[in-house]
């Protein structure tokens, strides 16, 4: 039997499950590193996925607790899209990825793990990144610890959004 160590998963397995939505943020930013919040915009924010498919797996979420894309206001939808566009060059610069999957799983039947709060996935990809691992062994490899990735991405997000602290 093959083993792939993923020590951060034990937090999820053994840890307490939140009673509230993990995407509904407190106003203060004291917990941003612990929560892996990379950027707070006017209507939306960027957070790293704690259980990623690949290094740099980001989530862009509206602040407002909505389930459906159609429920976003025009301003919220624009902020989400503007933030996703700004994430692309950051991921490309830091990870030298050859592609980026962008997705929305709306509803449990569509694969949404947290269906109650709309969120978009941005996943850096490389040619042959999963290769046979995901296909044959149903395994994904994550070569860098989440907090190392967070610390590396944080200055890039600050630089990208320095022109406007709320976008």
Q: Can you give a write-up of this model?
A:
With 167 residues, this protein is α+β, with helices and mostly antiparallel strands. It has one domain: 2-Layer Sandwich (HIT family, subunit A). Helix content is 32%, strand content 16%. The chain has 5 helices and 5 strands, in the order ααβββαββαα. The chain has helices at 9-14, 32-35, 74-95, 131-136, 146-160; strands at 37-40, 44-48, 58-62, 99-104, 120-125. Strands 1-2-3-5-4 form a 5-stranded antiparallel beta sheet. Strand 1 (37-40) and strand 2 form a beta hairpin. Helix 3 (74-95) crosses helix 5. The longest helix is centred in the middle third of the chain and has 22 residues, at 74-95. The radius of gyration is 16 Å and the shape is globular. The relative contact order is 0.19. Mean pLDDT is 85; it is low at 131-136.
How big is the Rg? 16 Å
How many DSSP E strands? 5
Q: State the low-pLDDT regions, or none.
A: 131-136
DSSP strand (E) fraction?
Answer: 15-25%
**Main sheet overview:** 5 strands, antiparallel
Number of helices: 5
The top level CATH class name: Alpha Beta
User: Which structural category do the helix and sheet elements fall into?
Assistant: alpha+beta
What order do the helices and strands come in, and which of them pair?
Layout: H1 9-14, H2 32-35, E1 37-40, E2 44-48, E3 58-62, H3 74-95, E4 99-104, E5 120-125, H4 131-136, H5 146-160
Antiparallel strand pairs: 1-2, 2-3, 3-5, 4-5
Summed up:
The chain is an alpha+beta fold and 167 residues long. It has 5 helices and 5 strands; from the N terminus they run ααβββαββαα. The N and C termini lie far apart (48 Å).
């Amino acid at each position: 039997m093959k083993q792939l160590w993923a020590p951060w998963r034990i937090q999820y397995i053994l840890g307490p499950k939140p009673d509230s939505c993990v995407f509904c943020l407190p106003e203060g930013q004291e917990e941003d590193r612990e929560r892996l919040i990379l950027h707070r915009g006017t209507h939306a924010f960027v957070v790293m996925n704690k259980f990623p498919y690949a290094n740099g797996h980001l989530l862009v979420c509206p602040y407002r607790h909505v389930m459906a894309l159609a429920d976003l206001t025009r301003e919220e939808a624009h902020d989400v899209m503007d933030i996703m566009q700004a994430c692309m060059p950051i991921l490309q610069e830091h990870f030298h990825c050859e592609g980026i999957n962008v997705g929305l799983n709306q509803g449990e039947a569509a694969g949404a793990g947290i269906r109650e709060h709309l969120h978009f996935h941005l996943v850096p990809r490389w040619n042959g990144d999963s290769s046979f691992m995901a296909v044959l062994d149903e395994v994904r490899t994550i070569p860098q610890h989440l907090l190392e990735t967070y610390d590396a991405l944080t200055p890039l997000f600050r630089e990208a959004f320095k022109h406007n602290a709320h976008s």
